Amino acid sequence: MKFMHISDLHIGKRVNEFSMLEDQKVILSEIIEIATEQEVNGVIIAGDIYDKTVPSAEAVDVFDDFITELSSKDIPLFIISGNHDSPERLDFGSRIMGKHKVHIAGQFDGEIKAVTMDDDDGKIHIYLMPYLKPALVNRKLSIESVSFDECVRAALAKTAVNFEERNILVAHQFVTAGGNAPERSDSESKSLGGMDNVDVSAFAGFDYVALGHIHGPQQMGRETVRYSGSPLKYSFSECRHKKSVTIIELKEKGNLTYKQIELHPLRDMKEIRCSLSELMAGKTLKTVSADCYVHVILTDEDEIIDAIGKVREIYPFVMLLDFDNRRTQENLNLNQLTGEDLKQKSPLELFGDFYVNQNNIEMTESQSNLFAEIAERMEGRSL
Hints:
A six-stranded mixed β-sheet has the order 6-5-4-1-15-16. The termini are far apart. The chain is elongated, with a radius of gyration of 27 Å. The protein is α/β, with parallel strands linked by helices. The protein is 31% helix and 25% strand. The protein has three domains: 2-262, Metallo-dependent phosphatases (Purple Acid Phosphatase, chain A, domain 2); 269-324; 327-379, no CATH class. It has helices at residues 21-37, 57-72, 87-91, 94-98, 134-141, 148-157, 276-280, 307-314, 326-335, 339-344, 347-359, 365-379, and strands spanning 2-6, 14-15, 18-19, 42-46, 77-80, 102-105, 113-119, 122-128, 166-172, 174-176, 197-199, 208-212, 218-220, 222-227, 244-250, 256-262, 269-274, 293-298, 318-323. Helix 9 (326-335) packs antiparallel against helix 11 (347-359).
């Protein structure tokens, strides 16, 4: 039996004030095409369906179109909530949709929901564990867990799993392996000092663990515990990611294979470092096409008037513009001045540092004298 594993759709997300809805529609259409071509028996979505707990109407429409199209092809869906989702909203209508093979576990009610499928090799059980945190599990199970690892283990311990048969667990947690953390990106929620991690050993016995929460595709501890990653790049720290869907195939017990199929976004996300003259001459277009989302880092030393306007002539989808030159480096050093530095330097010396940072040259003697005269008038004393 063959399944597609995806996660972290973050429908409705804005990146640097750019709406990603159009990009998400395109990538979800490609995912439907892949599911059809691969003849999958189910699509697993491991949380963070939406980017906000109260998604926009447009975001809800996009997801509705996606699951409706898959359902029309008689492809079952297995969906859990992530930390960005509202469990209650995601659960709305779930009992009705379950009758049409759209299985949703938004809220944890004390039990981990399971769906069973059959093929020639027997039964496959898909366990849907929504995003769990200690306060929720403690309330539902009347326990006193203090960490995410403890609460996940407690929830799994309450679940009767026949490990003689084939079992898939769908989860949305920050999973580590013996203290080794997954590779992360800027677009993810940061961990709470290590308290939110769940060790991979908690999932021992499951044939495959379909994880969500981390945006880069990767395994954790063993090949069959995997993050599928997000289908789109949601920060420039993900520029080098190759976004994909994961296809897993379970045959008889102990015989599982997987592969990743690369996705093709409407617009890629790239970083460019160059001078404005190089950019305007079209030199960067050889490696970064004009329809990409870009973070441009200009290395020019001279001040550029309307730099963003000039960059947009070549890259209309520029998201970020920064400078890296002597001025920015010296500004960085200026920002690192200690309170003792400020005490030891005179107003004239501090203004001189500021002038150099802004103009890359020292003040002339006449400019220094002018500043001293102005400061003396303002303070009523000599510098």
